[in-house]
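Reopening this ticket.

The earlier resolution said the output was attached, but the attachment link was broken on my side. Pasting everything inline this time so it's all in one place.
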Amino acid sequence: MTWFWFSIITLLCWSGSDFFSKIGCRDARDKYSQFKMVMAVGLVMGLHAGYMVFVNGVEISWNVILTYLPVSLLYIGSMTLGYVGLRYIELSISSPICNASGALVAIIAIVSGTAEPMEATQYLAIVFACAGVIGLGFVEANEDETLRAARQEASNYKYAKSWLALALPIAYCLLDAAGTFADDLVLETLNEDSANVAYELTFLMAGIVCFVYTVIIKKQKLVPKMELPKYVGAGFETAGQLTYIYALASGESALAAPIISSYCMASVLWSRLFLKEKLSWKHYLCIAITFAGILIMGIYDM
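Inline output:
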C-alpha cells in the first residue's frame, strides 16, 4: 500500500501548493507577485536539484539542460501565468481549469496522430473535461454582478468580471498541455531524473532573473510576512513532484493516477473552508463535470 500513501501525500502537497500560492499571489495591488512566486519556487527547486546531483548522484550536463529547455520554458511559462491569474479569479475556478490540461494533451495527441487507441470512456472523459471548463467560462462571464458581489463578501476579496480572469488559467492550461506533450517526446532521449534536474535548474535561473528584475531593477521590497506563503507553496510543489514520482514508480500507477488527479478538488475544498470562497451551484456543477473528466482520465492514465 506504499503507492496509496505516496498518492495521498502528492494530492495533499499539490493542493497545498495551490492554496498557499493563492495566498501569496492574491493581492491585486502587488503587480510583481508572480515574479516573487517564481523566485520562491526557483530557490526551493534549485536546492532540491543540488541535493539530487551532489547526494543522489544524478548526472546533469549543459546538453541535457538545453535539450530539455523548450519543455522547461513551457512549464515555467504556464506556472507564471497561473500565478498572475490568482490575482483575478477564485482558486475554486482557476484550479479545475488549469487541471483540464490533460484533456488538451489527449486532443493534441489525437489530432497529431500520436495517440494510442483509446476506450470510448476515455473519449467521454475528454468531452467532460472540456465541457466543464467551457461551462465554467460561460457561467463566470455571464454571472450577475450583484450575485457575484454577494457571494464574494465572506472572503473579503472582490473579483471583477473580466476576460483576463478567465484567459490566464486557460493560457496556463494550453501551455501546460503543450509542455506535457513535448515532455513525452523529449523524454524518449533523456533520463527522467536528469530531465527533472534540468527543469529545476532552469526554474532556478528563472528565479534569479525575476530577482534581478523585481528587487534590483524595480526595487521592490520583500516583506517576510507576505513572502512566507509563497515559499510554503513552493515547498509543497517540490515535495509533491517527488512523491508523485515514487507513487508512479511503485508499479500501481493505474490506481495512483486517479487519486493524484483529484487534487484540484482538494484545492476547491481548501479554498471553500479557509479562503471562504463561495460559488454558485452552476459553478459547482461545471467543476463536478470537469472533475469527472479528469478522474476518468486518471483511471486510464499510464
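Reporter confirms the inline version is readable. The first helix runs from residue 2 to 25. The chain has 13 helices and no strands.
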